[in-house]
Specification:
This protein is mostly beta strands. The protein is 5% helix and 44% strand. It folds into 8 domains: 153 residues, Spermadhesin, CUB domain (Jelly Rolls); 256 residues, TolB, C-terminal domain (Neuraminidase, 6 Propeller), CATH 2.120.10.30; 75 residues, Immunoglobulin-like (Sandwich), CATH 2.60.40; 70 residues, Immunoglobulin-like (Sandwich), CATH 2.60.40; 68 residues, no CATH class; 87 residues, Sandwich (Immunoglobulin-like); 38 residues; 70 residues, no CATH class. This is Low-density lipoprotein receptor-related protein 6.
């Protein structure tokens, strides 16, 4: 059968199925005489089949059937048989299925061919709205058995984007038709590059460029595991074949394409040569092909069969860098984006009908996915997912998040899938290891695991007094892919074994991580001739009353089992202690105890679980790295199975709950939960006790003073604060003048606070010396001290001289006998200028002159000199006889 089908949900509200015929359809066993019938779909399936089914359909028919369901549901078509005339491009007999009705219908399926090929194509078609249209067309030549299908109304299945963001080392899931989204945080993820999602298992697969590995995380349990870490250098492209249950990826540095199952088993390098820098990869599972980009020079689009054979170049061009790649399964068209030229290219899967267009100016494309009539492209520059119509017209930036600046890998898948339509070429294959699809619905089996060239030894029974050296033939394995084998083992041939039973284990691993193991038992018995197990301790989940217990059964020196036993391995034992007894023919007895205890809910599993964590960031930041002490277990029976976040991860502004899961016996689970809150800090620190201005006076002869004060304290809402700068310490020496001191506190988030005060040092005489004159002060202080000393000496000299003169005058003056002293006539002194001579001319600085008379004595009976006559001259000197002014 030839068909062009796409198994997805669309965005319109009608599904239209057209079968071209003028005869009748059979609907639920009833004839539909009107070829252009309108049918109603309900929750319970109804059947529709071609005319005359199961007999041959007529020639020259052209029928249109419209099926509708209630609003809010979609229509699901499930084909059970299909047998139409085969022709190129289905130009003769054909069945066409459309999404919608009348205007705006979109093709979902265009099929023809034989039922023998049908299972290799999706047997289910789902609308995106509540209407579907079927069209069945036949010509006048061959007639065959036709088709039969059921249709029913079902709830729409949500679709999600999953995008890799190395900017915050996380993945993000975004609902296709709503703003709902959630972060996915695989443990220890460093630089996620490509992603894909398996809706059947709920696992998101990712490549980590920096860690050089490939991992997966379940979106429901958040369980993370690395499935490939060996022989990986630059894992770039990644694609899940949801039909064949395979994982394909490319390695840019190694120039290879590889495949494994979805659990990481059966790893196989399918293309080792002929590639330069392979990039993105997509699969066409129903046709048995893979397609991938090569970012070398020249850039290429390549095609190969799903097992890596028949490699061919579909498209090659110089000065290009084809990167993201998507496939339209219905139209069999490849789309790719080129960040070097900012263009989008298209080509048919057979290498024909190439085309290209320029993308929006400034876009830096990385990945692309196709959905209905839209293309979604991750833009590294804008940190967004940009949507383009399939007509190559940009619609808008569809999805963007504040603070996200590095969207890379992208996928779009249904959120869940029940696997009803996952019938594929390898589903019934006889392959013992990995099955790879081939074109025309064939398959090939590949042997990838290391193979035993010498078999694993059988169980060994030995005897000895206290023990014995036991030897065996070592197993040998080789790699069918030619890789070297790494071997590890628990015991060695020729090793000494004490009495007891020992499990011997060999593990073999090739360079790709493919593993095989070998296990056998070594039992050493002593003179008693009996091997007896040790006591057994088992923990069961809370509420359980019994526990299953197994052991190696006792044997005697002949390798024979006991003839009588109280219990058997695998038996259920009640809570408490039970004695197990084995008795042999020679009356030898083996006793051991089995203890079963209940694992109570109040058992302390975690030795420590962090309290809630609060972190602050600067206003311009949107995230920060948060660390906490390593979480330890108190119960050795438990192991940490999953952590939603790990210490050192980046956390965005907001509140996020961190959950750590520990799994113990019987899959009992215990959780450690705490919250991490990241807030923006725009509050400056608080400074307490900022000193006021301090004034001090230097001692006489000193130009500096030691000053002390109580330093201010500081606090901050973030709990993290420090002094960014501090002035001199208390107890420092300060010179005469004014000194400004400033404390600056910072919280590390760009918020600062200051405390400033002055220290004023004055000289002993109260004089102040201005700032910047420290050196001058030191020189002037010496001069000032010298001048003061001189002035003091002059003052003392003048005082002594004055006393002497007074003494002499007092001896010359006659007794007054009541006679008043002589008086002087008034005279006037100039306000400015020198006096030239008594009774002469006075010359002023201004140039003027004035005449004056010399004073004359005037007697006054009062005994005092006339105050008017004295003016500003003060009291006259003591009266001396015959004394004149000239004296």
């Amino acid at each position: 059968m030839r068909t062009d089908m796409l198994n997805f949900a669309s965005v319109v509200s009608t599904l239209f199925v057209i079968f071209l015929s003028r005869q009748e359809f059979l609907v639920s066993g009833q004839d539909v005489t009107n070829c252009n019938a309108d049918l109603q779909a309900y929750r319970q399936p109804s059947t529709i089949s071609s005319t005359n089914y199961p007999g041959n359909y007529p020639n020259n028919i052209n029928c249109v059937i419209h099926i509708q369901s209630v609003e809010g549901t979609v229509i699901e078509l499930n084909f059970s048989t299909f047998d139409l005339e085969e022709s190129p491009s289905c130009q003769k007999d054909a069945l066409v299925v459309y999404d919608g009705y009348d205007g705006g219908m979109r093709l979902l399926q265009h099929s023809c061919g034989s039922d023998f090929v049908w299972p290799h194509y999706p047997s289910k078609v789902v609308s995106t709205g509540n209407q579907i249209t079927m069209k069945f067309v036949t010509d006048g030549n061959v007639t065959l058995g036709g088709f039969s299908a059921t249709y029913r109304a079902v709830d729409p299945r949500p679709y999600i984007f999953v995008v890799a963001n190395p900017g915050d080392s996380k993945l993000r899931a975004i609902y296709r038709h709503s703003a709902r989204n959630f972060r996915i945080s695989p443990k220890n993820l460093q630089y996620p590059l490509s992603v894909d999602y398996d809706p059947l298992s709920g696992f998101v697969f990712f490549t980590d460029k920096d860690a050089k590995n490939i991992g997966r995380i379940n979106i429901y349990s958040l369980q993370t595991e690395i499935i490939h870490s060996k022989n990986i250098e630059y894992p770039f492209g990644l694609r899940v074949d949801v039909i064949s249950r395979l994982l394909y990826w490319t390695d840019t540095d190694l120039g290879t394409v590889s495949v494994s199952d979805l659990d990481g088993n059966y790893r196989l390098t399918i293309i080792k040569n002929g590639l330069d820098k392979p990039g993105s990869i997509v699969t066409e599972p129903h046709e048995g092909y893979i397609y991938f980009t090569d970012r070398g020079s020249p850039g290429k689009i390549l095609k190969a069969e799903a097992d890596g054979t028949n490699l061919q170049i579909l498209f090659s061009i110089q000065n290009s860098h084809p990167q993201g790649l998507a496939i339209d399964l219905q139209g069999r068209i490849l789309y790719w984006v080129d960040p070097l030229t900012d263009r989008l290219g298209t080509i048919s899967t057979d290498g024909s009908n190439t085309g290209s267009m320029g993308l929006h100016r400034g876009i830096d494309p990385f990945a692309i996915v196709i959905d209905n009539d839209a293309m979604f492209i991750t833009d590294i520059t804008r940190g967004s997912i940009t949507i383009y119509e399939r007509t190559f017209r940009e619609a808008s930036i569809a999805i963007a998040f504040v603070g996200v600046d590095d969207y890379r890998g992208l996928t779009l898948r249904p959120l869940y899938d029940f696997g009803e339509e996952n019938d594929y070429a390898c589903s019934s294959s006889p392959c013992s290891e990995i099955c790879l699809p081939k074109p025309t619905w064939n398959f090939t089996c590949k042997k990838v695991l290391p193979e035993f060239r010498k078999a694993c030894p059988a169980d060994i029974l030995s005897r000895g007094e206290d023990g014995v050296n036991v030897t065996w033939e070592e197993p040998i394995v080789t790699s069918p892919q030619g890789y070297n084998i790494t071997q590890t083992q628990t015991h060695f041939s020729g090793q000494y074994f004490h009495l007891g039973a020992y499990q011997v284990n060999y593990n073999f691993e090739d360079a790709l991580g493919n593993k095989v193991s070998c296990d056998f038992l070594v039992v050493v018995i002593g003179p008693s001739g009996i091997f007896c197990p040790n006591d057994i301790f088992v923990i069961v989940e809370e509420g359980a009353t019994f526990g299953e217990v197994t052991w190696y059964e006792p044997i005697n020196s002949m390798g024979e089992l006991a003839t009588i036993s109280s219990h058997s391995p695998g038996q259920l034992f009640p809570l408490g202690q039970t004695l197990v007894t084995y008795i042999f023919d020679n009356s030898a007895v083996c006793n051991f105890t089995v203890t079963v205890v209940e694992d109570h809910e109040d058992t302390e599993v975690f030795a420590n679980c962090p309290d809630s964590i609060l972190k602050w960031v600067a206003p311009e930041q949107t995230s920060t790295r948060v660390t906490w002490n390593e979480i330890q277990l108190a119960n050795p029976a438990y192991q940490i199975s999953m952590e939603t976040e790990v210490s050192g991860n980046e956390f965005y502004v907001g509140i996020e709950t961190v959950s750590v899961l520990a799994v113990g016996p019987l899959q009992r689970r215990a959780w450690c939960n705490f919250t991490v809150t990241v807030k923006i800090d725009n509050i400056a620190p608080d400074i307490f006790g900022c000193p006021n201005t301090i004034t001090r006076v230097a001692s006489v002869g000193s130009t500096s003073v030691v000053v002390t004060w109580v330093e201010p304290s500081v606090s901050d809402n973030s709990g993290s604060v420090y002094w960014e700068s501090k002035p001199e310490e208390p107890g420092s020496t300060f010179s005469v003048g004014i000194t400004e001191l400033t404390y600056v506190a910072s919280d590390g988030y760009g918020n600062k606070a200051t405390c400033s005060f002055s220290i004023i040092i004055s000289e002993a005489d109260g004089g102040n010396t201005g700032p910047g004159e420290t050196d001058a002060r030191q020189g002037n202080s010496v001069v000032i001290s010298l001048l003061i000393s001189i002035l003091v000496l002059v003052f003392i000299f003048c005082l002594v001289l004055f006393v002497i003169l007074r003494y002499k005058r007092s001896r010359r003056a006659p007794p007054r006998n009541g006679t008043p002293p002589p008086a002087y006539e008034p005279w006037t002194l100039p306000l400015h200028g020198p006096i030239t001579a008594p009774g002469g001319r006075v010359t002023f600085i201004s140039g003027g002159t004035v005449n004056f008379q010399a004073p004359r004595q005037v007697e006054d009976t009062s005994g005092f000199v006339n105050s008017e006559a004295m003016g500003a001259m003060g009291p006259p000197p003591p009266y001396k006889e015959k004394e004149t002014l000239s004296e």
